[in-house]
Design brief:
Blueprint lengths: L1 H24 L5 H28 L9 E11 L2 E8 L5 E6 L2 E11 L9 E10 L3 H6 L3 E4 L8 H7 L6 E7 L3 E2 L5 E7 L2 E6 L2 H9 L1
Antiparallel strand pairs: 1-2, 1-9, 2-3, 4-5, 4-7, 4-8, 5-6, 9-10
Length: 212
């Protein structure tokens, strides 16, 4: 709920800015009106940016400690070629083809101050990728990477990630450790206080993870 509270607060600020913009833009006077007009346009621009910023924050999801945020099922159809059934929490299954021996899931994280309530950061799926065991294959063979981030008008996370001085929010990246791809293996990815964890679910996944 923390990120939703922050986004709702931004909406309230936006409404105040819109009222200020309307009041200054339609007030009487010449030079004073011009000055107020400039202030109104600045307030209007800030309101537009704040609206898009808040909408992007609303696109992040919340998770409880240890709750599964994604499930992955692997089907091998050729040497080092796998079809992955990727099912995000409260989402529909998507199918991807990964090449290599290992897989990894990356997410974007936004953590708000404790005053907003939640301990765990809010998250957004960033990418799913495969890699090869050997450095030679990693350099020579075809890579497979799938990005989940759309191209919004304002992409909040990269900007927040660079602003380490901001006291309200902190943006970071979470990555599940590389895990082996095996025919029939099922993994679940959970968000914890220590970061992302990839957990083997069935016997195929457990055996491959233990031998990895």
């Amino acid at each position: 709920m923390a990120i939703q509270i922050l986004a709702s607060s931004l909406i309230i600020v936006v409404l105040v800015l819109l009222l200020l913009a309307a009041k200054t833009l339609f007030s009487a006077g010449w030079f004073v009106k011009w000055l107020k007009g400039m202030l109104g346009l600045m307030a209007l621009s800030s309101a537009v940016f704040g609206t898009v910023f808040a909408l992007d924050l609303f696109s992040y999801s919340n998770s409880k400690e240890g709750e599964t945020i994604a499930t992955l099922k692997f089907h091998k159809f050729a040497h080092q070629d796998y079809e992955v059934e990727f099912t995000p929490h409260n989402g529909n299954a998507r199918f991807y083809k990964l090449r290599g021996d290992l897989w990894q899931l990356d997410v974007r994280l936004i953590q708000t101050l404790a005053m907003f309530g939640d301990d765990l950061p809010s998250y957004k799926m960033e990418r799913l990728s495969g890699r090869y065991l050997t450095l030679e294959e990693e350099k020579a063979q075809e890579r497979s990477v799938y990005g989940f981030i759309d191209s919004p008008i304002v992409d909040t996370w990269p900007w927040l990630h660079k602003q380490s001085w901001l006291p309200i929010v902190k943006a970071s990246q979470g990555s599940a450790a590389y895990m082996p791809m095996v025919d029939g293996a099922i993994y679940q990815v959970a968000l914890t206080q220590q970061g992302l964890k990839a957990l083997p679910v069935n016997n195929q996944a457990k055996v491959s993870a233990e031998s990895w």
